[in-house]
C-alpha cells in the first residue's frame, strides 16, 4: 500500500515537472536574449566584443545596414553623377553655341538679308578708279554785283517836284524816276533810269532839296556776287579762275562758278582777303544779304581706287571698309592716300572689282559691335 502511494506521488511530480518545463525554458530564453541585447548595446556603446557569435551577428547586421547605406549612397552618387553629366552636357551645348557665335565675331563677319540692308540704307559699289578732289570750305554772303548797280543823283541842285517810282519797282533804262526844278533856271527837268533793274533804295520825297545827294539805287539782279572772306592760312591756295561750288546753308540751291576777283588788299578788321565769284540769278533765288557756303578746289588726283568717305569706319583703331560677299559683310583694314572732300584714295586693302559698302557702313559696324558685346557678356 505504501509502495503504491509512493509510485503515484512520483508520477504526479513527474507530470508537474513536465508542465513547468516550457515555462522555465521560455523564461530562460527571454532572460538570455535580454542579456544578449544588453551586451550588444554595451558593445556598441563601448566598442567591446562579447564573443564570436556577437561578432557574427554584429557583422551581419552592420554589414547589411552598411550595405544598404552604401547602396543608397551609390544611388545618390549615381543621381549626382547623372546630374553632373547633364550639367556637363548643358555646358557643352552652351560652349558649342557660343563657339559658333564667337568664331563669327572673331572673324568680324555679320550676315544681313537684302531686305534688311535696303531698309537700313546700306548701299554697295564696285571698287574702281575715281577723282579725289581736295577742297577748302568757305563762308560768305550774296551781295550786289557792283558792276551792275547804279546810284542815281540829280544833275543840278533843285527841289523835287515829283517822284515816279517806289521802292522795289522794276524799271527799264530811260524810264522816269523823278522831276526836279532847277534852282538856277527854275525849269523842271526829268531824272531818268540809267539802266534796267530794281529800285533798291529811294532816298527822296516831294519837296526835298537834291544838292547832289543820292536819290535812288538801281541794281540789275540778273547776276549777283558771292563774296567770300579767305583766311590767311588758305590765301596761298586760292587763285583767280579756280572753281568753287556755291550753295545755300540748307543746300537746296547750288551753283558752280569760278573766282573772278581776288582783292589785293586785306580787310583791316578780319584780316581776311576778299574773293568774288559771279553767279547767274535769272530765277532770283540768290538774294543779296543771304549767307552762303562754298567749296573751292585746291587740288585733285586721279586715283586707281577711290571710295566715298562714308565707306570708311574705325574698328579697334583700324580704318576699315566692309566687303560684301553674298549676304555676309566683313571688315577689311585699308590704307588711305590722298583724302578729298568727298572721296578717299585707297592704296592697299581693296582690289578693283570687289563689292564694298559705299553708304550705311555705320549700320554694319553697329551690328558687328553688338554681336561682339553679346558674346563677351
In short:
The protein is α+β, with helices and mostly antiparallel strands and 377 residues long.
Describe the fold and architecture:
With 377 residues, this protein is α+β, with helices and mostly antiparallel strands. It has four domains: 60-100; 109-129 and 304-376, conserved putative lor/sdh protein from methanococcus maripaludis s2 fold, CATH 2.40.420; 135-143 and 222-297, Efflux pump adaptor protein, beta barrel domain (Elongation Factor Tu (Ef-tu), domain 3, Beta Barrel), CATH 2.40.30; 146-219, OB fold (Dihydrolipoamide Acetyltransferase, E2P) (Beta Barrel), CATH 2.40.50. 32% of the residues lie in helices and 38% in strands. It has a six-stranded antiparallel barrel with strand order 3-11-14-13-12-15. A four-stranded antiparallel beta sheet has the order 1-19-18-17, with helices on one face. A hairpin with a 5-residue loop joins strand 7 and strand 8 (188-192). Helix 2 packs antiparallel against helix 4. It is elongated. It starts with a helix and ends with a helix. Residues 20-106 have low confidence and may be disordered.
Q: Which terms summarize this structure?
A:
32% helix; alpha+beta; 4 domains; Elongation Factor Tu (Ef-tu), domain 3; 377 residues; conserved putative lor/sdh protein from methanococcus maripaludis s2 fold
Amino acid at each position: 500500500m505504501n509502495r503504491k502511494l509512493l509510485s503515484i506521488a512520483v508520477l504526479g511530480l513527474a507530470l508537474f515537472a513536465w508542465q513547468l518545463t516550457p515555462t522555465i525554458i521560455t523564461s530562460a530564453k527571454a532572460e538570455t536574449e535580454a542579456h544578449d541585447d544588453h551586451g550588444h548595446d554595451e558593445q556598441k556603446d563601448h566598442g567591446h566584443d562579447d564573443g564570436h557569435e556577437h561578432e557574427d551577428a554584429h557583422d551581419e547586421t552592420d554589414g547589411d545596414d552598411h550595405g544598404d547605406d552604401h547602396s543608397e549612397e551609390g544611388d545618390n552618387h549615381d543621381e549626382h553623377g547623372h546630374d553632373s553629366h547633364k550639367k556637363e552636357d548643358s555646358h557643352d551645348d552652351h560652349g558649342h553655341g557660343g563657339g559658333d557665335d564667337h568664331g563669327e565675331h572673331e572673324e568680324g563677319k555679320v550676315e544681313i538679308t537684302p531686305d534688311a540692308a535696303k531698309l537700313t540704307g546700306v548701299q554697295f559699289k564696285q571698287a574702281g578708279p575715281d577723282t579725289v578732289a581736295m577742297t577748302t570750305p568757305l563762308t560768305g554772303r550774296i551781295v550786289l554785283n557792283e558792276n551792275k548797280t547804279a546810284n542815281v543823283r540829280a544833275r543840278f541842285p533843285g527841289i523835287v517836284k515829283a517822284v515816279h517810282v517806289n521802292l522795289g519797282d522794276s524799271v527799264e533804262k530811260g524810264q522816269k524816276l523823278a522831276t526836279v526844278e532847277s534852282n538856277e533856271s527854275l525849269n523842271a527837268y526829268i531824272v531818268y533810269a540809267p539802266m534796267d533793274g530794281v529800285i533798291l533804295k529811294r532816298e527822296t520825297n516831294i519837296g526835298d532839296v537834291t544838292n547832289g545827294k543820292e536819290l535812288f539805287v538801281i541794281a540789275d539782279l540778273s547776276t549777283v556776287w558771292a563774296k567770300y572772306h579767305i583766311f590767311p592760312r588758305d590765301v596761298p591756295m586760292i587763285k583767280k579762275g579756280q572753281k568753287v561750288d556755291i550753295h545755300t546753308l540748307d543746300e537746296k540751291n547750288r551753283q558752280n562758278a569760278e573766282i573772278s576777283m581776288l582783292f589785293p588788299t586785306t580787310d583791316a578788321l578780319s584780316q581776311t582777303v576778299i574773293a568774288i565769284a559771279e553767279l547767274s540769278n535769272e530765277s532770283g533765288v540768290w538774294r543779296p544779304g543771304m549767307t552762303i557756303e562754298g567749296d573751292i578746289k585746291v587740288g585733285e588726283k586721279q586715283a586707281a581706287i577711290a571710295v566715298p568717305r562714308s565707306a570708311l569706319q574705325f574698328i579697334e583703331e583700324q580704318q576699315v571698309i566692309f566687303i560684301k560677299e553674298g549676304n555676309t559683310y566683313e571688315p577689311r583694314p585699308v590704307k588711305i592716300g590722298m583724302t578729298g572732300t568727298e572721296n578717299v584714295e585707297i592704296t592697299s586693302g581693296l582690289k578693283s572689282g570687289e563689292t564694298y559698302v559705299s553708304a550705311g557702313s555705320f549700320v554694319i559696324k553697329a551690328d558687328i559691335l553688338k554681336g561682339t558685346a553679346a558674346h563677351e557678356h
